[in-house]
Amino acid sequence: MKLKKNIAISESGFIFNPEIGTSFTTNSLGVAILKQLKEKTSLEKIKDSIIKNYDIDQVTCEKDLDDFLRIVNQYNLLEEQS
Amino acid sequence: MNNKKDITVAVTGLNAIDSPGPGIAVIRGLKESNFFNIRIVGLAYEILEPGIYMDELVDKVYQIPVPSSGFDLMLERLKYIQEKENIDVLIPNFDAELMTFIKLKPILNKMGIKMLIPTKEQFEERLKGDLNDFGVKHHIKVPTSETVFTINELEDSLEDFDFPVVIKGKFYDAYVATNIEQAKSYFYKISAKWGTPIIIQQFINGNEFNITALGDGKGNMLGAVPMRKTFLTDKGKAWAGISIDDPKLIKMANDVVSKTKWSGGMEIELMKEEKTNDLYLIEINPRFPAWIYLANGCGQNHPEMLVKFLMGEKVDPIKEYAIGKMFIRYSYDLICDLDKYEKMSIHGEV
Questions:
Q1: CA of A20, closest CA in chain B: separation in Å?
Q2: What is the rounded distance in angstroms from the CA atom of residue A19 to the CA atom of residue B44?
Q3: DSSP A82
Q4: What is the number of alpha carbons within 13 Å of residue A69 lying toward its C-beta?
Q5: What is the spatial distance between Cα A49 and Cα A72, in angstroms, rounded to a whole number?
Q6: Strand partners, B272
Q7: I want to staple B348 with a disulfide (CB 3.0 to 4.6 A). Which of B6, B32, B63, B105 is the partner?
Q8: In this predicted model, what pLDDT tens digit does every residue of A7-48 receive, in sequence order?
Q9: Is B324–A8 a contact, with Cβ atoms under 8 angstroms apart?
Q10: What number is the ipTM of this complex?
Q11: Taking CB atoms and an 8 Å cutoff, what residues of chain A touch B228?
């Protein structure tokens, strides 16, 4: 899973897709996840870093991350998988 | 003091109303020229076109006869204006006046007025009713469309389409109809306002994009900026928009300009189908769009480039533009003295 390379991520949580001109907002954790996706970090590593830095159990983390990524996909921010 | 060359440019489309003409946006670009000091002569059809009263943008205004009053009357008026103003370049900004200016072009040229406008063939082949042929001729994907003149023809033609369909006027208005009754009601609504023919067009499910482009008439695209509307008025006009980065859109603009050898400004309306990501050409407007000032904000001053080209200056095509630049329109009340309105009413110039 990889974020489209031209997606602009601001520290403020403002996300801009220049291909279709849409924008979204997210929180600091969302920014951190998107940045890692852009750097092609594996989902396993992203999940581990969330569990390490936040007070969250593995099952809840997996579910929340899954939900977040579904939204990211709906917003057309991910590269199409071949 | 500056070294800019003094020239005079006439501009139509001063109707900066809720569904604005492009004139004021074109003038803003011209006034920001780094190359010319441009004196603006506004050409207005109605005496309440707001541009008439924008003293900081328009130096002199003349009322001109509406295109339907005929070629001779327009020529007579332009001869009078030219004697006084010595216009170098004229930029028409209305679809409805363009055919008159296309016919007038050789005469105006002899009078010293230059225009970069499409030819009669270019103007006609991109008409909404002829879009199918345009697509076939230039190998550009267009939605299937049929032209009808009567309600019976509409009913017959609808058998060739799956709903929803788009019902469009020849020049203005478009509605999405989801059944035959709706299609018929839109037929009546549009034909009562704009007359026939009416165009039935295949509905493309996806996102709409617009591109403003400038062609030199020899197949070269001098500039192009794509935009997505982010806020629409109830008439479906852009009230806000944002420049975007999609090489496919630029390629489409380049294809249209090079294959048609387009001359002048144009607005290309496209749909990107959600399922396939295929681009469909929906419409070509044969002039700058009302949002042309966004191109200027993105680093491409198309009105200035057009004038430079016509004045024989070298114009290098620009490919770069700023991405993520937005425009947002606003309404603003101009306070004017009655004497200006009086002069326009009585003398037709101010």
A1: 6
A2: 38
A3: -
A4: 20
A5: 19
A6: B207, B279
A7: B63
A8: 999 999 999 999 999 999 999 999 999 999 999 999 999 999
A9: yes
A10: 0.81
A11: 20-22
